[in-house]
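Recap slide: tRNA (guanine-N(7)-)-methyltransferase, sequence and predicted structure.
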Amino acid sequence: MRLRNKPWAVSLVNQHPESVLDRPDPQNTINWTDRFADDTKPLEIEIGSGKGQFITTLAEQHPEKNFVAVELQISAAGMILRSKLAKNLNNLQILCADAANIDCYFAPDSADVLYLNFSDPWPKSRHEKRRLTYKSFLQKYQKIITPHGHLEFKTDNAGLFAYSVQSMNNYGMNFDFVSVDLHNEVHEIIANNIETEYEHKFAAKGNPIYALHADFEVK
């Protein structure tokens, strides 16, 4: 979902190169060690962070971990940055870039968890390859997720959820948790669930939230 243009966002992003990488060249390796105050912490990545409610809350609750918010829209990156600065989150970095190059921006086996929250469903068949759970994306995720890491996915779109379950199953992934109504689960996962902006909006309308956790076969 495209956000309205925020004229202030570009200026704010440009003022904070220490916190935001704005559309870096995928041919150049990013040295994440230099971008975090403590690079020994486990790394978790959210692809498509939107306004940043999920990732900034997660970073605030877990100072023992490092996080990267990957977001294509500069206006959204600016909103995440504004929240990061307000909360003084030195364990959060922002990468304004296309997720299609995700395996160029992170080293193999570098992330423990990868989050996909309310991704664009791209419902038309001709756009299947753009879906973030398409097999080519799964292949890129497998490269950067550690052997003991996993992927967490949430959506309100039943079609995208069904497609994603099939795509991951065909890829050979293992499912640790699957729900077609996350907010009504009696499970420790919902007790620790952090809502995104869209999740709050959709759930308030009574829409079910679909979710899954999955990991890859041993490489």
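Helices lie at 7-15, 53-61, 74-87, 102-105, 135-144, 158-171, 188-191, 197-204.
The first strand starts at residue 20 and ends at 22.
(End of recap.)
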